[in-house]
Structures are given as C-alpha cells and as structure tokens.
Amino acid sequence: MRAFQWTLTAALLGAGLAATLAVLPGTASAGDDDDVAPEVAEKALKESIAKGKELFESNSLGRKSCKECHEDPDKPKDDLRQRSFSYPSYSRRAKRVVTLSQKINEMIQYRSRGTKTLDAAGEDIANLAAYVESIKKR
Question: Which of 9, 21, 63, 102 fits a disulfide with 29 by CB distance 3.0 to 4.6 angstroms?
Fold first, then answer.
C-alpha cells in the first residue's frame, strides 16, 4: 500500500498538484493541508479517479478514447493494466524527460488526434493522471 501511495503521489506531483500530497493517508506534507481528515482526502481521491475514468473512456479528448488502446487485451504492449511504468520518464517524441501530465497531453495530441490539450494545472489532467495511476500494473 505504501508503494502505491508514493507512486500516486509522484503522479499527482507530475500533474502539477503538489498540494495534493495530503490526500493520501500517511503522506501529509507540511502546509495548509495537514488538517484534512483522511476520510475527506480519500473521498476526494476516489471521486478524482472516477472522473478520470470517465475522461479515459470518452471520446471528448480526441478522435478515439484512451481506453481504445490502453485497456485493450489484444494490445498487451499498450494496455496500461498490463504494464508497469513511472513518471517522470523520457519521451521519444519530445526528446526529453516529461511528467505524466505532459505524456497524457502528448498522447491526446498525437495519438488521439485531439484538437486541444489539457491545462497542466487543471482538474481534468489531475483526474486522468489519478485514474491512470490507479490502473497500472504494480
């Protein structure tokens, strides 16, 4: 469980959400979020993951959904449930190290052929990152 908390925390940081460290039980950081009740934080994280799943499964971000490739048992190389990964990581397309939120935007733009990317500090990218982290192979 502890590894999941740190991995999810890292993903949320990659989504530009340093303030969400207190969302996960036992990972509170010094700051304004220290007094958040664990139940409130866990509920917020579950809601974020659910909203991320909706985005992941919809065609609202591009011509095809994320799910079409990344939850396809016929494409195990692309199926996020079958892969272990961590961010920041090197992107061949960007030719540099990117965060999970930057990789998500890269996928929207180039793979889904979306017409717009998500705001790196926005709620949608945080929700999508939370969902992606929740389904990856451990």
Answer: 21
